[in-house]
């Protein structure tokens, strides 16, 4: 597994997203647990979840899957609702997440998206649980460039380690200002939904992708993930509910593109030349 610098430490280039995991029957949950464990056994060092995912069901499944694993071998990320973003509610949400995950700390705790709570209060709440040892570091999710700049201007805001946004070949808005700004400020980036949403609302598969995947003898999904990883400087977190799907994702790490192939993709999925509204799934 290729390594990148993420959250100021060595990390696998892909993590494991867990949206909608733990919401099925026992058979489906067992397969999902196998997928999580296969990921950990084969070099994946980041697991991403949230209290929102299945109202805690995803965290509960992850907690079962990581039993017996050395907790220091991987980074565990969870996220809290924006209506839980006050110091008191952050602490309560975190305690509940830790119980479901059966761990005593998180490597990263993220504000899932921005709500009505002033950022100053959220920073204070995160600082308190960090000082108490319940989280190692904290970050945000679904923040646009104006949000990031505002956060960074506040006392303690410069300690934000990561921002997690939608990023795939059809949703490239982060390339215009967010990715350059985060690189300048040494803030890691997590790209979620490299394949678009389940219903394909955020990514239309055009013939160029199908043709290129056929030429490379890979699946379209593998091509999509490899494209997100092409510069080897961000973390992508595709969901893999089955071991077979996970194996395909792991293999995508080794797919490379020629400059002509990247230009061809750019011609059908143009990179932004101006600020666009951040898309959120």
From TrEMBL:
Membrane-spanning ranges: none
Residues under site feature: Lowers pKa of active site Tyr: 79
Pfam families attached to this UniProt entry: Aldo_ket_red
InterPro entries (alphabetical): AKR, NAD(P)_OxRdtase_dom_sf, NADP_OxRdtase_dom
NADP-dependent oxidoreductase domain location: 13-267
Gene3D superfamilies per the UniProt record, alphabetical: NADP-dependent oxidoreductase domain (3.20.20.100)
Signal peptide extent: none
One GO molecular-function entry: oxidoreductase activity
Binding site residues for substrate: 112
Active site per UniProt: 53
Protein name (Swiss-Prot/TrEMBL): NADP-dependent oxidoreductase domain-containing protein
Organism in which the protein naturally occurs: Companilactobacillus tucceti DSM 20183
